[in-house]
Structures are given as structure tokens and as C-alpha cells.
Amino acid sequence: MSSVVPMLGILQKLVWRKLSAEGDEHLNGGATMRSLYKAQRFVAELYAGLLASRVDTILEEKKLPNIEECLASIEALERNPLKSLSFASLFWNGQDLGIHIARHELKGGGLFYEVTLMNREDGIDRMIRAEIRAARTQPEPFASIFSTNGWSQVPREQLSSIPELALMIQVIVALHQWRYPKISIVDLEKSDLGSNTPRSENRELVKLCALAMQGKIPCTRVTVPLDAIVPKDMPHALNYPIEDIRRLRDAHIDGGQASSALLLYQRGGKFIMDDDYSAFLSYKSLGFKRVPAVVIGRFHAPGIEVLETGGRELIPPILVERRPHPVPSTPEDDARRLEWKLQVLKPSRPTAIQNLSKIYFEFCHLLERRRKLEVDLHQFLVRHPVMLDAHAAQVHSEVRVGRYRADLVLRYEQSDKRVLLVELERDDDRIFKKNNRLVDKVAHATQQIEDWITQIRGNAPEMPAWLKGEYLPAGLVVIGRSTHLTNEQKETLFNINSNRLVKIITYDDLLERLNRLIVSMERT
User: Residue 36 and residue 32: Cα distance in Å, rounded?
Assistant: First the structure.
């Protein structure tokens, strides 16, 4: 074990050096990362993942599970997944290796793990990248590996033919076994289960677990409102040490989301929790509204989202921890005392810069999606109108304007009573013909907005009440990508926009607007 070099810190230093070298003088680290994300999303996500990682798990090659054991663990990797980011170091084949693992959701159900293998000699300049799928509903392609020739799919029976790919799967399963250890009944009886176990045995819960293990009652994986859950042992919850909640909270939170399922049963219209106090108290302290859970036995309650129905395989893993020292109870209202106790753990809210950066990265990711629709872009901009203009007070979607219907209308609260009419086209549409004249679709879109403006100025009858009046309308067509334009076309577009009421911009221009806003905020 001592011969394994922890690689996370080494790679993090290399990332910072790389970002510093590539950044212009006027850009700080955040802006450099946003610029990189726009140009090379995978590299930027890897850098961000490395910098965000806090745990470097040291593994030994001789203790890695074999391939057969790994293939038998695929279902567990979906049902009880790794955290969204994981990292491991090991010495393998004469090399010091670092392995970064990012978990992603598949559209249609299931997960895939994006794995990047780096060695100490090459650092972040050369890497091996692969994807491993854990999805019962769509299990294939199971494994894919990237090379200079692009992506290649590897059948399960051929995993051992690519040692690096086999190693990646072994590391994933080794990390999973470390996160969800199997505890024998003998070891469990000898262990001090500590804080997450009530001081007196809950015979009802023990009986329900036994029936579920025998397949006599169902288990259901759900999401449930947190305020519908009641701890069985309130004195135990009240006596739970704050330092233990703080220490264990990261184990239950992943990417800002609740990740550990609570074990519940229903009595008297309430869901009873008597097994996962550290997770329950962590969620309460963070102000979660809904949390994942597994309900043992039948239940009936509104507001419950059922994710999966099954048996014993759904019961969440056991967390073993230290038992707190009890303190005398008081006659105060227990629920109020519990809320007060957890106030000290409430985290600070994300800053405006962090929220805007998150929007930037999500929009980059959306633009790279191959199977997106125009409506996906539309809905994103409705949710995040700051992409269009940070000064707009309100955004309205699908607005009736006389005989027409506008995609988006931005309203401003300044004294000049401005509105901005927005027509959205596809991001893969062309803007110019080969002779550098606007394509017909762009000309039609600009004319359409001019028609809307005419309707507003004439107070057309078929308009919402808030749009009638002395408004100063302007227009915006959003279409295509700047990366598809030549320098001459960019200059032509600049000249067109300088003389028109209806401007034409690309989706990359929206990203650049948001980036300039973030940079200006970072400088204040």
C-alpha cells in the first residue's frame, strides 16, 4: 500500500498550471474554464472534475475484484451508484495511475460511468477514456473505449483483451465495494452500529425487514416529501451530535442532491424512519423538500413518486458509525428543538456567479447534444432569460401578437417601456449562402419580427393586455453557431446588425454575453 503514489494532488496541480498557461491576462480561472468548456467540453469537464474531487482512494492491484465478479456487480452499480465524481490511485503495470470516474444518467433510464485513466509520466497530456454502462433497460453497448480512431464498442466477453479497460471496470467495482461494504450477520452482531441505530430495538422494523428478505412483502423505491417522514426515536434524533452530522453529511449528498435512500414504513398516514438518522438529519439540515427512500410493505399516500417496485434487493445498504453519548431530555417541543438544532448546519446559498456559471455550462452541454430539438433550446431560454438579456424583468413564451405568435417576448421595467421580440431557429442552421448573403430562412425570420413590431405599433386587437400601449419594440433572431462562420461572414453580420432594428446573433453570442456578465461580476 505504501508504494502507491496518491495521484489526485499531482493532477490537480497540473490542471491549475494548464489553465493559467492557456488563460489570457484579462481572464481569471473561471473564465478560462468557461472558454475551454465551450471549445473542448470533455477536457473542461475532466479538469473541473479533478479540481472538485476531494477523496483519493488508494487501491492495491492484488485486491481488485476479478472480471467475473465485476460483471456480476453491474446491477448494483445502477441501483446503488457511486457518487457523481470518484477518484482512485494505484500502482499497476509499473506505472503510477490516477483514475477519474464521472457518473452520468442515460436518457431513458440507467447510468453510465465515464472513466479517464492517467499516468504520472504523461499527466493530463495523454489519457485513456472509456464508458461503462450500468442500465438494465438498455444494457448495450456495455463498454466503449476511445482512441485516435474514435469510439470502439467492446463486448463483455472481450474485456480482458484490453487490459486498461478491464482495469477501469475493476476499479469501479472496487470503489463500489468500498462505498457499500457487505457485512456478514456475525460481524453485524459484533459491531457497534452507533448513531444510525436506535437505542431500543424497533421490533416492528426488524419484522418487516425479515418479511421483505423472505419475499413475503414488497419493497418500493420512491421519492417522498421530507416533511411526511417522522423519526421513530425523537430523543435519539435530538441527542445526535452535531459534529457527527457534519462529518457524515457528505456521504449522503452528491452534487447537491440527496443520494442515500431512507428506509421507511408507513403507520397512521406517516412514514416512519428508524434506521438512517445521519441521512435524515443531514437532509433536514440542508432544507431538502423531497428525498429518496425505500418503503417496506404496502403504503398509500399522495405526493409519492414510485421509481421501482421489487423485493429485498431494494433495501438500502447499512451505514456503520459511532454511537453518540445520550443527554437528558427536556420537556421542550421536540420537533421545534430538532429544527433549531439543525440550523447551525444550513449551508450558505450558491453565489450569483456560481449560479450563472452553472447556466453557462448547462447551455454548452445542451448545444453539444446531437438529438436536441428546437423546443429544448426554447425551454432552456424560458427558464434562464439571463442568457438573452440580464436587464429584462420578465419573459413570456408563445405570445399572441395580432395575427402572429412570437417565440419569446422580453419585458423591461425601465421608463422607456421596451420589449424585445425573439425568434428562435435551430443552432445547426446556416446563416449565409456561399456568396455571403443571408439565407432565405434568416430573411424570413427578420421579416416575421418586423411584422410583429408593426402589429404592436398598431395596437392589434389580438394581443395580451400588458403588450398594448406605447411600447418601443425591438427584435432578435437567434440562429446557428459562430464557429460555422468565416471571419468575413462575422464582419458582414456585424455591419448588418449596426443598421437594423432586428438583430441577428448566434447561440455562441448568447454564451459570450453571459460570459462577459460573469467576468464583470468577478471583477467587482
Answer: 6
DSSP 26-74: T--HHHHHHHHHHH-HHHHHHHHHHHH----EE--GGGSPPHHHHHHTH
Supply φ then ψ for residue 240, to 5 degrees.
-65, 125
The CA distance from 99 to 86, in Å, is 8
The answer to whether residues 376 and 366 touch, using CB atoms and an 8 Å cutoff, is: yes
Residue spans of beta strands (DSSP E) within 280-319? 290-296, 305-310
Residue 227: closest CA among 144, 316, 304: 304
pLDDT (tens digit, 9 = 90+) per residue, 6-56? 999 999 999 988 887 655 444 455 777 788 888 888 888 899 889 888 889
Question: Shortest CA distance to 425 belongs to which of 401, 450, 438, 407?
Answer: 407
Q: Which of 205, 281, 273, 270 is nearest to 239 (CA)?
A: 281
* pLDDT tens sequence across 238-295: 888 888 888 888 788 887 788 889 999 998 888 999 878 889 999 988 888 999 999 9
Can you list the positions of beta strands (E) in 402-521?
A: 404-411, 418-424, 472-478, 502-505
CB 341 within 8 A of CB 324: no
